[in-house]
Amino acid sequence: MKRRAFLLAASAAAFVPGRSEGAGRFDRGLLWRVTGKAGASHVYGTIHVGDPRLAQLPGAVTKAFGGARALMLEFLPDSYSRERFLEAAMFQDGQTLEAKIGTDDFERACRHMAVIGLSREFVNKLKPWGVLLNLQNPKAAQGSPLDSQLLDLARGRRMPLAQIEGVEEQIFTFDEFPMDSQIALLKHSLAHGAELAALAERTLQAYLEADLAGIWRLRRQFGARHPQIAPHQAILDKRVVHDRNVVMAFRMQRELRRGNAFIALGALHLYGTDGVLARLEADGYRATRLL
User: Which H or E run includes 72?
Assistant: First the structure.
């Protein structure tokens, strides 16, 4: 059993769409200069996957990061948070995944989880959301996610580190997600694996083009083809993106008030009128796209 292969909750932001529609200032762009009373900081939208195409940070990002005073990430994993998150993702009362989703889907889940080294016995203890998160990153072994790259660079420079969310907040996002919605989304993902893999590739392409609205359109089109999961997806959208945007925009200001910070978080948290950039501007900051 490879517990370290089990992904933390932040990965989910990569596959949940935003809600805003129509052309807008925050439809495109991954790197932004955010200016307030303390001067300029930078906000960078990442994607929580490993892929060779993400192996090198863009030059503009490297330059902005190089002059930063401190790094703030969506989440800072450590040994305790990994164990705590894993504990929360597992049934503690004797329930099993197979009983929740049925034998056929359980077998499909085991085949997917075997790729990251998880045994049948371990998978059977996972809640549906624990499996669902780990279906989203099939290329995890092919490269280091951008957040991890930035964290390694910051530690090498002994930069001050901060996080937007704690592990209990990330756990709450998923553990309070209704069980019927967990089951519906997991069963749907298991039944449409090839389509979701193709969607993940197109999503990464849109990310590489800094096209946040394009990522939203891809997800919206996928949802339109599968209206039976729309109510469940809407609940997940609210919990994973929209509710967290409010908190994130507030928490980011701890570092923005000090100035010269580099803040990295999932790119779709930047998108649209519900995103953190729009919320920061509503609080008096000014965002300027750099990339």
Answer: strand 70-73
- The pTM score is 0.90
Q: 32: how many CB neighbours lie within 10 A of its CB?
A: 24
| Amino acid letter for position 46 | T
Sequence spans of domains, the chain:
3-289
Q: What residues does 195 pair with on adjacent strands?
A: none
- Integer Cα distance of 144 and 141 in angstroms: 8
Task: Tell which residue, 31, 50, 39, has the closest CA to residue 264.
Answer: 31
pLDDT of residue 134: 86
Q: Are 260 and 39 in contact (CB under 8 A)?
A: yes
Is the pLDDT score of 5 beyond 60? no
- Paired tokens of 190: 């298991």
E strand or H helix at 152, and its extent?
helix 146-157
Q: What single string gives the DSSP state of each residue in 227-264?
A: GGGHHHHHHHHIIIIIHHHHHHHHHHHHHHTT-SEEEE
Residue 111 phi, psi dihedral angles, 5° rounding:
-65, -40
Overall size of the chain counted in residues: 291
pLDDT at 219 over 90: no
Q: Per-residue b/e over 163-177, b at no fewer than 16 CB within 10 Å?
A: bbbebeebbebbbeb
Above 50 in pLDDT, residue 284? yes
* pLDDT greater than 70 at residue 3: no
Of the candidates 165, 158, 163, which has an alpha carbon nearest to the alpha carbon of residue 69?
A: 158
The mean pLDDT of the chain is: 90
Average pLDDT over residues 18-28: 69
Q: Which residues contact 94 (CB under 8 A, 6 or more apart)?
A: none
> Which pLDDT belongs to residue 116?
86
The 8-class DSSP code of residue 126 comes to: B
